Amino acid sequence: MMNMNLTNAVPEDKIHSGHLASQVEHALKLSRDYANGSVHSDGHWCGELRSNVTITAEYIFLRQALGLDMKADSAAYCRHILSEQNEDGSWGLAPEHPGDVSTTTEAYMALKILGLDSSHVVMRRARQFVLKSGGIEKVRVFTRIFLATFGLFPWDGVPQLPVELILLPSICLINIYTFASWARGTIAPLLLICHHQPIFPLPNGKFAKNDYLDELWLDATNKNVSYGLPLLSLLFEGDLPGVAFTCMDKLLYWLNGLRSVPVLRSYARRKCLKWILDRQEVTGDWAGIFPPMHGSVFAFILEGYKINDDPVRLGIQAIENFAWEDERGKRIQACISPVWDTALMSIALSDAMTPDRHVVEQAITWIRNRQLIVPYGDWCVYRPGLPPGGFSFEYKNTWYPDVDDTAAVILAQIKHDVESIGSDSVIAAAMWIVGMQNPDGGWAAFDVENDKLFLNKIPFSDMDSLCDTSCADITGRILEAFGLMMKRAPEKSLASDCFPTLRAACTRGIRYLASTQEPSGAWFGRWGCNYVYGTSHALCGLAYFDDTRVSGLVLRGIQWLGSKQQADGGWGESLLSYRSPSQDWQGSTPSQTAWALMGLLAHLSPKDLAIQRGIQYLVATLQPEKGIGSSWPQSVFTGTGFPNHFYLGYDYYRHYFPMMALGRYLQESSSLTPDLHIVIDEGRFQICSRLIPDATVVNLLKFDFQDISQHATFALPGNPSVCLFQTSLEDSQRKCRQIGCICHDFTFRIDDVLDVQKLESALYRLMDIGNWGQLGARLRLRSDSRLEYHLPASYTKTRPPFIFTTVNYDMNIDEHPIGAKLPKQNYDQSFLSPPGRFFEPLVCHPESPKELADWIYSDRPQLHIHVVSFRDTTLITTSYVHTLFDAISRTSFWKAWGAVLRGHEEEIPPMVPFDQDPLHTLGQDYPKERYHNFGLLLTGFSLVMFGIRYMLELLFTQDVVDHTIRVPGTYVKKMREQARQELAEAAPKGAEIPFVSEGDIVISWWMRTMITALKPSPERPILLMNVFNVWRLFPEWFPPNGAGFIGNAFFYSYTLLSSNKVIHDGSLAYTASKNRQALMEHRTREQVQAMTAIQRKSYKRTAPVIGRTNNFFMACTNQQMSGNFNADFSGAVIKPGVPLAHRAHALGQPSYINDIEHARGYPTRNVVRILGKDAAGDWWLLFKTRSGAWREIHRQLMSIYDGDEPRLEGEVTEVTKS
């Protein structure tokens, strides 16, 4: 651990701002001299990128395997490896990091190959550490593979990696592109290596069971070592992904890794080799990082290439180009960072107000020439239409530009020359970044939507590094870049046209930061150590945005940073903080001190004592550097590759980050930049600019936030809530927390011109009636993971009860490129309508919420109403989270709103207040055995197997599409009449004919249509889950007809059939009667009580599932009873858009409904939402299933139309094909 000389730290009472400013100016001059003296002749910087000894060791393994001479560099390699050994004989993941058994084993083997005798004291100490740590049996999977290639570890002890993985298309849930870029490039050559399972010679010879490292085994006579957790342990922990992948791995082992299908294996090997070869740069690199380069050279050799063949020769040369040699020896870098170093050094020089502008100008020119403007690379797979514009980290890496470098380059260009904001380079880079934003609002490094964390359960993955998810540090840098663009843009800038897009992206980014802030106020640092890095970047990004939500985030972040300042004035966080919060702090480091200072300077006055003490620390620790100016010494790593597994030491981190901090301090200290202070007034607060240097400043670093909320994990200080209501039983169940992952944009198409102002005024009036104002309650997540409502003490313009946004188009809707495709009454079914999400840019506001986090981590009200007006049509969209409404209570809200519009407030029922939960005692102390399907419940192992099967089906049906279709009412009536006749004929004489509704018939028709299209096996059991509401069952708990109840009060009924019964042996009458029977059996007080009792006692409080482990699962919700098409906005009609004579629906009633479902993390497929029956009597259904089934579904739909309807058998539109 690094120990700074605390005598360098100046006492608080000795800090003088004037003296400190002059000291900072002198320090900046010396640090600029070092920067200018270390630049390459062409204008760029590239410092050493240090890592642990495994990279060098693995290169030695490669040279040994290929028979390449190592005599010339043997001593230099040994000198480096030995210099990194810990006192206990081990090698760690980073300097001063505890020993690691895998790293030590690889270092030991490399030294032995280089000629160091195993009896040497260095080797004895290393061997003792390995054995004390459990022996070679405990090494990671990568190390196992390297050892297995020399016969030192059994190949049976390595997880299965079939080459056929390369053949899976990108639409599959698991394919080569669902892995992170670094994992993808590494896995591809490993597929070939594991296919061949080679044995290369060691100095003692070539043996399938080589004893070269037997001294590192606890028992060298038994090398049958398993990997991963036992299956029973995974089952006990409820780890379904782990169980599924473990079973799959064992199946592949039993099938000999699919080697028994030689034709397929041969084809897969050719495809894999081509995939690798396509991604080799002209310089020989693969992805610009060592692991893919190392593995790819191995793969080509195993596939028959020779040492002198170009792919191998260039690959080896590319690795050699990563070599770094000095007095400490020779080592191989894991990567090189010229673009990153040059961009950040340019920012530092600009922040330091360098007079040598030509140095930065040359650097910016060097960077710009490396912008990737050709649309290819792996990022195109999931963003095929996105224009290019990114930058990569290395000299040559055309396949993998990264978002973080691209944002840094934008900052470098703008800080050097504000006119560059309108340049092609900056605009292209910014728009590429926008296109790479994840659905959660954050940004990852290389990929988009690369967040399938269950992949880390694959036995091969023991480093938790197979995904590239959003992170706060990158998101913060992007907010800073976009904020700087919009703040400094000159008037009439060419970039101004893209500012609305940037603002919308920033809004989503802020939501992401709100959702990921730790309870302590810090943010996790993915690419730098750790919370100091993440928090600093988040605060720097948030500095450009000044709403109340941001203020709350900033205050907590500032408080956390201030609490971690050390006695010497600096900051220092250990890499061990990734492992355990109790091991988080070490001696102060220049880079981490600079990060903390930049985060604080973005929001506080430079006269703040904590800032001045931090600046003094940097001034005091500056030291002369090799005769060319001065820099800051730093031996520990502060860069992160993979938390807990791989760390990086960027040589220039110790220099350009402190330069940035000192430069920003000096700029903020001048009179040109206003200070910041906190205004606290009547419970509200905001960060404000001030131009009066001596105004009172609140000491934020000692601000007490402990009383912000005793209930919520996240609450906005300064926004008091006088009422805290726990959400209802149904909404607090984990089932409904899953529903919380489902959000809706529910749009009415009204073929009339409505008075938008009257719509808004009526909604405000509704908030004043009875308890209806509680709809403005904010949704919060408590520390015990339950949801609750926070009701504001009062509503204001800045804290409204709902969000109401509008857009007006001076055209008819059919003249709008998207609006023209929106279905309406008598929609021509010969053309499938586009998916509901296609209309999102039209019907939704750019800032409308999309997931639960958008509500619980912000001060957003639960309702967002967006109204789009045309000359002949009005679209009304209600955006909400499912925890607020089920279909019935949603209709209660619309009825109340409509009653205000029509001036009939007496029709508005009292709203059931949120503190009254009608269902809070449901299922308590009720025997779950009374559930009539209790014997069919899937529990324990059977439930696990059902989950595994369902996951495997998702693997091959990832591409899911929804379309809304119209089923003619005349056809539904004919089907129902035919069904009634069949049921009458089948009923015993004198018996009552079973009742079936039109809804039952529609559901049965949907089941038959889907099963025909999806083709499950004939005897496979079909499990239909239907939804029903329970307010009629408990009249003592609910108001009549559920009027005024806002929440969820629905339960499930289950119908078990077989595929044959639905398609062949049965009929619509049979299926409809079975569904009706199941509904009636479940829809009783006793069954609802029993189902709730089961749910209360189940793992994670999930709803019961019945049937068999191979259920074909289908789900339906019939919303006809909710009366969606009866919504009445006639009180706001200005004039008809479609003459009444030409339509069936009344004024102010919808002719079409568009429902966009956002179901992040909650897979929904093979489902239908029956939106209802319109005024013409036609039924509207929203199907959601895999895209490949839509051709057959459309064919069946066409077959039901009469002669007066379009009938185009087999015709499939372009929309269908897409």
From TrEMBL:
BP terms from Gene Ontology: triterpenoid biosynthetic process
Q: Any idea where the Squalene cyclase C-terminal domain is?
A: 336-666
Record's GO cellular component terms: lipid droplet
Kindly give the SUPFAM superfamilies that the UniProt entry links to this protein: Terpenoid cyclases/Protein prenyltransferases (SSF48239)
Which Gene Ontology MF annotations are present? intramolecular transferase activity; transferase activity
Which InterPro entries has this protein been placed in?
CAT-like_dom_sf, Hopene-cyclase, SQ_cyclase_C, SQ_cyclase_N, Squalene_cyclase, Terpenoid_cyclase/PrenylTrfase
Any Pfam family matching the protein: SQHop_cyclase_C
Residues forming the Squalene cyclase N-terminal domain are 30-327
| Keyword terms | Isomerase, Repeat, Transferase
Q: What is this protein called?
A: Terpenoid cyclases/protein prenyltransferase alpha-alpha toroid
Organism field? Penicillium expansum (Blue mold rot fungus)
